[in-house]
């Protein structure tokens, strides 16, 4: 494999580096300060021509090959800049399942950062087993009335819109009675309850309670009962490491830890270096497949497991090298513990791999 940039890619990388040299240090990269300014960072990236690189021009993107997103992720990590906001899975969900009218109405604001979004999937009793969700959407004239409770909803406190899953047919089989909606978060009947994480971050996740919130029927995404199809599109893209920008950051953290190590290298750091390099090469393989038009389906569960293993290996290395006294490094360890839960638990990913890739019985 030849991983070197093409002339066009090299020119893009150089232009990006020049721009980052002037702005990277002006934005926080972690903690509540990062989340508070993420929308501003999104808009700054877009105005400079570095956001929405691989998304359709019709909605404000540039329709470049996905390798440009990987270059962006790498250079953001190298420059010590915040990561790009993670919206690709929502854009894929709307792009594949919403009507042209809904796409034209909502995708431009999502891409350029003028409208903030959240994803209303997980519930207190329906996280890994998403099909058991109990939030309901009941038809009332031209609207649906929403009642229910979502949790671990990223950016819910600042979101203008939510891509929401709710049960529209309680009598249907549980995978069949779910529909998807674009719901306004700025309305009566929507209550926010922020969640403080053990790392000290208070503004990344929230609980959202819906008590009579309304959504117009024409803001249903797809047909009634097609919400599960959208959900599988969204989580499939959410689980691909090549779209998440993590690989470059893991490698940078390993190098930072190595620079702080005198004498013998701790076993945890050596293993983290192996794991980070494995993921870097895996991302490039997945990228090559994407460029060839390959879609991965349930193989996204393999990707998610690999990300989890690498994240937690690097987290353990941070703890071994820096201990608990370095707030940033200890925060990396604490955050890594969530990787085996968020985006689909490791146990669920193994079940998917067993059933849908290996063909094993239930």
UniProtKB/TrEMBL annotation:
Q: According to its UniProt record, which cofactors does this protein need?
A: FAD
Q: Which Pfam families match?
A: Acyl-CoA_dh_1, Acyl-CoA_dh_M, Acyl-CoA_dh_N
Reading the lineage from the top rank, the first entry is Bacteria
Q: Which residues form the Acyl-CoA oxidase/dehydrogenase middle domain?
A: 118-211
Q: Where is the Acyl-CoA dehydrogenase/oxidase C-terminal domain?
A: 225-358
Instruction: For this UniProt record, give its keywords in alphabetical order, as a comma-separated list.
Output: FAD, Flavoprotein, Oxidoreductase
**Domain (Acyl-CoA dehydrogenase/oxidase N-terminal): residue spans on this chain:** 6-113
Q: Write down the InterPro entries for this protein, in alphabetical order.
A: Acyl-CoA_Oxase/DH_mid-dom, Acyl-CoA_Oxase/DH_mid-dom_sf, AcylCo_DH-like_C, AcylCo_DH/oxidase_C, AcylCoA_DH/ox_N, AcylCoA_DH/ox_N_sf, AcylCoA_DH/oxidase_NM_dom_sf, Mycobact_Acyl-CoA_DH
Family under the similarity heading: Belongs to the acyl-CoA dehydrogenase family.
Q: What is this protein called?
A: Acyl-CoA dehydrogenase family protein
- The organism named in the record is Nocardia fusca
Provide the organism lineage as a comma list: Bacteria, Bacillati, Actinomycetota, Actinomycetes, Mycobacteriales
